[in-house]
Amino acid sequence: MPNIQLSKLKNQNHEGPVRAKILTFLQKLAEDDTTPGLHIEKMQQQADPKARTGRVDQSLRAVLYRIDRAGEERLYVYAGTWAHDEAIRRAQTLVLQVNPINGIPEFVESAPTGIPSYVPQTVTPIVEDPTSDVPLQPFLKQFGFSHADLTESLGFDASAAEALLHATSEDELLSLAESFENEWQVNAALALAVGEPIDKIREDLAIGEKPEPGDDAFVAAFEHPASKMQFTFIDNDQELKNIIEGGDFGAWRVFLHPEQRSYAEKSYNGPFRLTGGAGTGKTVVLLHRARNLHHRDFKKRIILTTFTKALASALTRDLERLDPTVSLASSLGKEGVLVRGIDQLAAEIRDSNPELFWKSAENVFGAATEPRSKLVSNETGWREAIEDSDTVLPAELQSPTFYETEYLQVVLPARITKLDEYLQVRRPGRGVALDRTKRTLVWKIIESHRKASSHLGRINFAEVSAVAVSVLQNGSAVSVADSVLVDEAQDLSPIHWQLLRALAPEGQDDLFIAEDSHQRIYGQKVVLSRFGIRITGRSKRLTLNYRTTQQNLHFALGVLEGVQYLDSEEAEETTHGYKSSRRGPTPELLASQTEVDQFEQIAALIKTWIDGGVPQQDIAVLCRSNTKRDQLRAQLNDRGVPTVVLEPGESAAKKPVLMTMYKSKGMEFSRVILFDVSAGSIPNPVGLQNTAPEDLDDFLLRERSLLYVAASRARDELVISWQGYPSELLGAVV
């Protein structure tokens, strides 16, 4: 029986009926390639003797490359399905070869045998600006790349190297990158565009020694890490069915960048952190890693967790899409992969042994604690505790957000239960300096809050996590997990990190952390080393964006300019090197003078997209708040544009989607409108008023991050609307 190797090519997003025919053809090919109905045929003139075509139906033919191996099953490389004449042309002119420099399989355009060989010149001439006396310089000149760097070190042919070296702008260079047939070429060109060193590009593409020629080298080349961005071996009929019916030969389920694959497969002696901007594939790596850990040892207890229950539901869905054979654990401590939101994990610890949980609560609250049934948010009760105080508080101690943050960042992590302990505790990262007198005042408010919570039978999410940590640390010496994988780690609190550290024992593959400090839209910055999580020397960054276009990425990153972000080890987080493999239109700025004008323009734009054939569920309008969202929904409905409010993890109905910017995290849409990014709307004026002065800078960083998250949801087109004046946070991009 022949083996099948699928290749990822452009323009192969076929409709459902055609996908079904392709699947049937490939299934028959894998069973017996001599079946007469397949019509596996050579061309009269072809540049590659391996090339064949096969009959999919009366008008469509598959392009194949047959590799015969001594003593081995025959191998067919499937290179797409095309209309009859185009399939013949491609099979005649497209050569499948192993790149002689980098050892990566690639398709190369060539002339068929018997036809005069002619390679079209793709060199782009340097175009001079007619209004300037200074000729335009090649864009790559600033980085000092040479012709030999591109040809002898990376493997570009002379024609492609010349074209890249003569491109006079980033835009021209990115257009060239988009036109390349092979994934390794696209990735290398994008890396050149941001000035990545040649050695770094070779490392990322796993380019090593020059390959040996011959068919054996051909088969070995398909095992090259970079080949797996474009080629995948089909092990069984079900895998073939999953890929073909998925409808996207570039699906994240199948093709991984070699750098991503390395992080998904490698073992680490201790915690590992993977960073990267929105859309760089951090979650994809986590899903593949969860699958790989599971198949490496089916008895392993693996936890895959994230910030919210909704995001966890999306992870469960995607893990099942990636590999339906992965066993999903039903509860903590069970074999398989357990997918939960971080607060769900704490709740499971509470519910699995309520008696032990409430007994352990004494370690958190300092006194025997009766079971409490009312679960509340972390902000609940602080304003009332301040108002009930019989002491006149100084201005800096009158903000509810100050107490909430102090409780989450200092009191709960340190298990403080008495004033004496609070007077002595270190408070790193807290903006307000507190002397003994002020600490005493603060502790009175905290005590009042705790007494009220006890009286009312309430407990907040952070307190549940704190007690859960106590259960794990003191209630049982048995660990409940072997490996913990963490998504959206930038939003987790100190108590969350203590919980994660307590779930799995320190050791090999204990913690794998995916985060992007630029996407922190909840909570305060956390330094991992303070919670026993040391990642020095075990941290890497992804830079290639797979979701959005270069134009949208440029806008989203522009929102972050001019301010400093720190990562979880207090090092500055940079956006240098971020790039996209796709191009599209420049984001549209939709300025309005009045509120009504803004509603009219958005309604008209959505109608234009729908009339142009954009599926309605691929359109999303993102709002700063629920109030803005509901107001907009009513106004759009009055203008003949019915919409649906979508919650995270839900499937969109066939209507344009409205949701808050917060809830858009983890989602993507073809067309995205950021609604009312106006001065006075963003930053959130209520948040500005309620934020303690020492937390104001961090609040503004989170507001900026929220815009970045929202802008990076757009795959193709991005529109930003405002009325009056735009938000100050758009200063760098408008």
Automatic annotation (TrEMBL):
It comes from the Bacteria. One of its GO terms (molecular function) is 3'-5' DNA helicase activity. The keyword ATP-binding applies. It catalyses: ATP + H2O = ADP + phosphate + H(+); Couples ATP hydrolysis with the unwinding of duplex DNA by translocating in the 3'-5' direction. The keyword Transport does not apply. InterPro entries: DNA_helicase_UvrD-like_C (IPR014017), DNA_helicase_UvrD/REP (IPR000212), P-loop_NTPase (IPR027417), UvrD-like_ATP-bd (IPR014016). Its EC number is 5.6.2.4. GO terms for biological process: recombinational repair. ATP binds at G276, G277, A278, G279, T280, G281, K282, T283. Keywords: ATP-binding, Helicase, Hydrolase, Isomerase, Nucleotide-binding. Residues 255-556 form the UvrD-like helicase ATP-binding domain. PANTHER family: DNA 3'-5' HELICASE, UVRD / RECB / PCRA DNA HELICASE FAMILY MEMBER. This is DNA 3'-5' helicase.
